[in-house]
Amino acid sequence: MKQLKEKIIPDKYIPEAGSHIETIDGRDYLIANDAMYTFYRRTKGEFSDFFLAIRDQKKLLGCKCTQCGLVRVPPFLTHCPDCNFAPTEIIEVEQVGVMNSTPPITYFATSLFQDMAPYGRGRVIFRGADTAMSVNLYTTNGILVPGLIKKGTEVKLIFRDKRVGDVKDIFCVPASELTKTQIRKKGLQESEIDWETAVQPKLPKANNNDLANLKKTVKEITSIVIEMNRNPRARKDIAGWKRNILVKTKGGQFGLFIRDGNIRVGKAPSSSDFIIVCEDPRTLLDGLAYRGAITDSVINKKLWISKNMEFNTIFKLDRMARSVARTKKM
Ligand SMILES: [Zn+2]
């Protein structure tokens, strides 16, 4: 496999040399960027075969006791403690399994895992195995919300396109979201899955009230967005960020456009980076007005977004609302 040329610390995390002033309670403080280095190498030790099988062969390995036949995945024992330390042998298990428990979902991850959130983390018993293995869980259908993956849900193991030989190389999605061919295929990769056309929640038919509600709400959102554009803190929250967002509501649709510090409301774009579906546009309005977070509305299934990684954008919108609220307080 081709080695990746990325650096351990990506360039974007390396601060510029220099200094700047931060004013806290009316006093100026000089802040300078500095660095402290610690790099280390870590061996996967006896787990090397397991991770190499994932990286190079897209196989999931376990160990089978030569005496009692118990299959442990991952293969963490070379000898079975239940059988007076009889040797185990490496075997391959299947890549479809069942959730052993209902996975908790991480929405706000530490910086190390932020690009992966939201994700579920739970234990899966793969076919052919007797023990459960911890894996990260995603849905192909927008964002992972409670109830989508539960104890007993059948899941399929998916391999990242770029694999380096660690736990992040694999994750699971519900088997019900895949075709039969995909479920059967060994070594199914993330790029073979359709992440783009997530099934959107259906909106009920609009009546006159809904049309009027949308018109009124868009007007209110527009005035909030104008306020955000005037707020340096809020502008900073979306610095370097560009998104065309299509917002679909019961009463109709509109667009939200983020352009490196600027945010604007307008006509629904013909193509968008992602889609928001919320039956009542006031759900989005309330979030932008800092009356409850939009992230909470996503988690509570009042507002749906089409792509998992765009939770980041939702998070930024919440930050902008907070920045405006904080400025008002001062
Ligand atoms: Zn045994």
Furnish the topology, listing elements before pairings.
Elements: E1 19-24, E2 27-32, H1 48-57, E3 60-65, E4 71-72, E5 79-80, E6 86-93, E7 96-99, E8 105-106, E9 119-126, E10 133-137, E11 154-159, E12 170-174, H2 180-184, H3 208-230, H4 232-237, E13 242-249, E14 252-259, E15 262-266, E16 274-277, H5 282-288, H6 294-299, E17 304-305, H7 311-329
Parallel strand pairs: 13-16
Antiparallel strand pairs: 1-2, 3-4, 3-6, 5-6, 7-9, 7-11, 8-9, 9-10, 11-12, 13-14, 14-15, 16-17
This protein binds zinc ion.
Zinc ion binds at residues 65, 67-68, 70, 80, 82-83, 86.
Distinctive features:
five-stranded mixed beta sheet, Nonspecific Lipid-transfer Protein, Chain A, binds zinc ion, 7 helices, alpha+beta
Number of domains: 2
The ordered H/E elements are EEHEEEEEEEEEEHHHEEEEHHEH
Low-pLDDT stretches: none
Looking at the structure, what is the overall shape? globular
Q: Report mean pLDDT, rounded to a whole number.
A: 92
Query: Rg, please?
Result: 24 Å
- Largest sheet, described in full? 6 strands, antiparallel
Instruction: Count all strands and give the number.
Output: 17
Distinct ligand kinds: zinc ion
